[in-house]
Structure to design on (839 residues):
């Protein structure tokens, strides 16, 4: 008699011990420490924190180790942990104007107050594999340090343009923004929720959407007004104290894209802004976010909404890689009940069609 | 707060048990459920009303209640919910006395019918098998429910409430340790 | 289940009380407006989206230590994801009993099937729903489908069914065939085979539906009118394989087709493993 082959508790347990063995790899090779991941795979840690919506480098490093370097899996682990945490209060808005910048560049001006600071960047490196790193590497010599000049306070490019009346002012609102992690999105979502969604959206998705606007799918003529990267202070106001206290510093990257706007019947031509702010040093996602943010402002600015990147519901409902990968991978689950009904339907339709053909042939 | 009465003895499991009773009541309108481990709230709140409140309201749900300062302090302490002075702004309305008119409460919209108020209505007694005749989803043929101390004109108000389905107010009736529910989807006829 | 295997540091049934209250409030509204999709603040669960997170959150908000939980996937208790979800609840809900017997269960979480044994009062069915919007293939914008539900404008679906008849000669999706609930809301029954659709109509059990990724839940109260969409001249006909279960001999159950060799050998067995096992045991006795 046929015995149904179905997964059981034992099969699952065995699969998971095999997974643990594979994760460790060759035991003769020293185990990787989460401190090594945290110190040496910093951009992976930053991406996991950004898309995991949880600023904790040690936990992100642990997640990367547990996920065998699969960053989406690591993001999922961090998100699932994050949901179980109690919420004490919301922080005050970060003031990136007060950032201690380690990198600050503008593509719109040759020089500007605060200067151009390249900082630790891949830009202008020649992408040649460095075989010296494959050997036990020596600690690199410390990079030369500049004198902390007087230009430490970097004026914002967007503020300079605004002074001249060339930058469209942003709408100011004192309304408490929603929280995409607590309340389901409904459309139109509005810019605050849009930015929240993009800030934790999949980097690859944001990059592709942003890229599509550069290739003509959406009316974008962007300039990097400014990218700044560095440490900002996080403050909260505990209700029992009633005044702000600092709870720590975090590293963030901010990107302000400047886009031309043709003006309308009521408004003179001026520049508009696309904004990106992300955890860590994930500059590519900050830039992508800024481009997509600007594209999604099409309706607000009276532009035609024609391209995918301008379509709020399309972008926001497909940006999350934890949702996307879960649903995609669920196709691995058994579907044989549904497939059986498809089989019956197709067989019934074929039988009917064949019957019809034979009847016609007989006539 | 020296006189503050306790809430659920077990905040996790007693809340679950109270919710299941309310879910059962809402699913089978007119059937009376007994709460297993309700709290002892301050007068005039009955144990069932106290249990329903603690099971369902919290910082995310504005509450309107007419049950006096002790009750207000008790709910606020145990549930941490915002209290509003206008019943039309509340997600939950607790009426120990004459309730506000159903038409005055939030009814949701056709797109968001869930954005409607739930009225927790304290009455004197709930008895199955006699009284109102209830029909609609959750009821195989007809359920009968006698509501002792129902507000005057309630059946007529209910007809208007049910007529605007899917908009409308849902009602949870409480008496002693008993609950019954009237979801907006059902029809009530006088017995 | 030993205490050591239970997950430390998590609340009963994993979710925090605030999340449970939010889901419980949404469930009560769902019952009050049968078939209407209610948005809820779905949380990230330790299982992936698409793998039952909606059903799990609904079950976690409803379940208590006095419950007896059955979890099935494709009708079977021993499919991998059913095992995984049952194990999850055993770890996070101390005191909860699990069972494979439909008759013993007070809560049945399911993916893709309704048990063959008629359900009874006091039982709660929890369906895992991948896509709660029955109109999504016809209109992908949820802002628009929400408006259509508000207006009870289901013309799109009628046209689609009509085209199905023109093309295939019959009404019908073979699974996830849409239903009208209480004569008002068009609803996805989840991807159950259309064979199971009639079991939803006037069921004595409470039926709850959770879609975690899409952040929607909905309900069918007991004894509620649930009609599979069709036309008078083309009535809805549920399909099953025309076969007999090779294990218990049933001729009226939903069957899984098994490929037994590479020469076209096939046999059929019940998809509902508990129902089939019970019948086999009764035949021996």
């Amino acid at each position: 008699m046929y015995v149904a082959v179905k997964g059981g508790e034992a099969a699952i347990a065995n699969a998971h011990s095999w997974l643990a063995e594979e994760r460790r790899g060759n035991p003769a090779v020293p185990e990787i420490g989460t401190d090594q991941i945290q110190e040496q795979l910093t951009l992976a840690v930053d991406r996991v924190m950004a898309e995991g919506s949880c600023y904790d480098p040690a936990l992100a490093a642990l997640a990367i180790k547990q996920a065998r370097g699969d960053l989406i899996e690591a993001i999922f682990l961090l998100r699932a942990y994050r949901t179980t945490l109690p919420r004490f209060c919301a922080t005050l808005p970060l003031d990136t104007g007060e950032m201690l910048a380690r990198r600050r560049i503008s593509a719109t001006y040759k020089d500007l107050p605060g200067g151009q600071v390249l900082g630790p960047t891949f830009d202008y490196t020649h992408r040649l594999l460095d075989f010296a790193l494959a050997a036990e590497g020596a600690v690199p010599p410390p990079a030369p340090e500049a004198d902390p000049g007087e230009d430490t306070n970097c004026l914002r490019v967007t503020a300079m343009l605004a002074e001249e009346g060339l930058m469209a002012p942003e709408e100011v609102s004192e309304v408490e923004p929603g929280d995409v992690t607590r309340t389901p999105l409904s459309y139109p979502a509005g810019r605050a929720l849009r930015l929240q969604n993009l800030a934790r959206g999949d980097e690859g998705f944001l990059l592709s959407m942003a890229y599509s606007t550069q290739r003509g799918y959406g009316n974008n003529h962007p300039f990097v007004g400014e990218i700044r990267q560095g440490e900002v202070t996080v403050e909260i106001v505990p209700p029992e104290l009633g005044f702000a206290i600092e709870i720590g510093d975090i590293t963030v990257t901010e990107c302000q894209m400047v886009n031309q706007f043709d003006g309308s019947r009521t408004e003179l031509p001026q520049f508009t802004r696309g904004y990106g702010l992300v955890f860590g040093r994930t500059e590519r996602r900050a830039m992508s976010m800024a481009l997509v943010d600007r594209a999604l402002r099409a309706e607000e600015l009276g532009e035609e909404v024609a391209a995918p990147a301008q379509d709020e519901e399309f972008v926001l409902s497909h940006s999350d890689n934890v949702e996307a990968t879960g649903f995609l991978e669920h196709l691995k689950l058994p579907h044989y009940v549904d497939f059986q009904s498809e089989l019956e339907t197709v067989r019934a339709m074929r039988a009917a069609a064949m019957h019809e053909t034979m009847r016609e042939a007989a006539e | 707060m020296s006189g503050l009465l306790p809430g659920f003895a077990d905040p996790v499991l007693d809340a679950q048990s109270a919710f299941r009773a309310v879910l059962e009541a809402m699913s089978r309108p007119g059937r009376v459920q007994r709460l297993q481990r309700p709290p002892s709230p301050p007068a005039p709140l009955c144990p069932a009303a106290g249990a329903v409140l603690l099971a369902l309201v919290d910082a995310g749900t504005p509450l309107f209640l007419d049950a006096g300062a002790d009750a207000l302090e008790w709910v606020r302490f145990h549930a941490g919910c915002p209290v509003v002075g206008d019943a039309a702004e509340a997600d939950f309305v607790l009426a120990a006395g004459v309730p506000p008119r159903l038409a005055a409460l939030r009814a949701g919209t056709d797109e968001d019918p869930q954005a409607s108020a739930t009225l927790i209505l304290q009455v004197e007694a709930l008895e199955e098998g006699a009284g109102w005749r209830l029909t609609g989803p959750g009821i195989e043929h007809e359920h009968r429910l006698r509501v002792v101390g129902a507000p005057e004109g309630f059946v007529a108000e209910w007809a208007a409430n049910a007529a605007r389905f899917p908009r409308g107010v849902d009602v949870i009736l409480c008496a002693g340790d008993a609950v019954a529910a009237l979801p907006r989807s059902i029809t009530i006829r006088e017995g | 289940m030993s205490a050591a295997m239970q997950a430390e540091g998590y609340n009963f049934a994993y979710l925090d009380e605030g999340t449970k209250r939010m889901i419980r409030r949404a469930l009560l509204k769902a019952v009050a407006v049968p078939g209407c999709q209610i948005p809820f603040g779905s949380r990230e669960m330790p299982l992936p989206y698409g793998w039952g997170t909606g059903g799990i959150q609904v079950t976690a908000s409803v379940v208590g230590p006095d419950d007896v939980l059955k979890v099935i996937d494709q009708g079977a208790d021993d499919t991998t994801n059913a095992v995984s979800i049952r194990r999850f609840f055993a770890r996070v809900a101390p005191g909860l009993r699990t069972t494979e017997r439909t008759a013993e269960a007070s809560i049945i979480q399911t993916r893709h099937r309704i048990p063959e044994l008629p359900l009874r009062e006091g039982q709660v069915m929890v369906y895992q729903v991948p896509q709660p919007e029955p109109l999504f293939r016809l209109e992908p914008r949820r802002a628009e489908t929400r408006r259509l539900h508000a207006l009870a404008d289901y013309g799109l679906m009628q046209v689609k069914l009509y085209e199905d008849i023109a093309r295939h000669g019959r009404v019908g999706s073979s699974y996830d065939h849409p239903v009208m609930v209480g004569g008002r809301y068009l609803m996805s029954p989840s991807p159950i085979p259309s064979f199971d659709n009639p079991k939803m109509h006037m069921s004595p059990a409470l039926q709850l539906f959770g879609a975690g990724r899409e952040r929607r839940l909905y309900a069918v109260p007991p004894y509620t009118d649930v009609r599979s969409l069709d036309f008078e001249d083309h009535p809805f006909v549920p399909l099953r394989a025309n076969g007999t279960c090779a294990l218990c001999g049933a001729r009226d159950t939903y069957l899984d087709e098994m490929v037994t060799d590479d020469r076209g050998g096939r046999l059929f067995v019940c998809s509902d493993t508990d129902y089939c096992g019970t019948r086999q045991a009764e035949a021996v006795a």
The CA atoms of residues 120 and 141 of chain A lie 14 Å apart. The longest strand of chain A covers residues 245-261.
